Amino acid sequence: KISTVNVGQYIDRSAVGKWQKISIPLTKFSNIKGWDRILEIVFVFKNGYGIPKGTVYLDDLALITLKDDFS
Fold first, then answer.
1. pLDDT bracket for residue 68 (50, 70, 90)
2. Measured between alpha carbons, how far is 25 from 59 in angstroms, rounded to an integer?
3. How far apart are CA 54 and CA 37, in angstroms?
4. How far is residue 1's CA from residue 58's CA, in Å, rounded to a whole number?
5. Is the pLDDT of residue 39 over 60?
6. 22 with 56: CB under 8 angstroms?
7. Which one of 6, 16, 24, 53 is most buried, counting C-beta atoms within 10 A?
8. Which of these, 49, 57, 50, lies nearest to 19 by C-alpha position?
9. What is the structure's pLDDT at 4?
């Protein structure tokens, strides 16, 4: 199954061009029922403003469960 999340709602637009820590609750990936069976993670970037341009760097990516994910 595919589960998508719009990362735009988690980005601080005032910090564009700087490193940001972005935390997305795993519960936002509603179609994923068994995290222990994930075979592939794919990132797709769409800017929605016409011609795609820009650079995205990912560093220190972690999938963690927090207490708040289950409340």
1. low
2. 18
3. 33
4. 24
5. yes
6. no
7. 24
8. 57
9. 84
Q: What is the phi-psi region of residue 63: left when phi exceeds 0, alpha when psi lies from -120 to 50, beta otherwise?
A: beta
Mind giving me the DSSP string for the chain?
------GGGGS-GGGTTS-------GGG-TT---GGG----------SSSS--------S------GGGG-
**What would the mean pLDDT of 34-62 be, rounded to a whole number?**
78
CA distance 24 to 69: 10
pTM for this prediction = 0.64
CB 63 within 8 A of CB 69: no
One-letter amino acid at 3 equals S
Contact 26, 65 (CB under 8 A): yes
DSSP state of 15: G
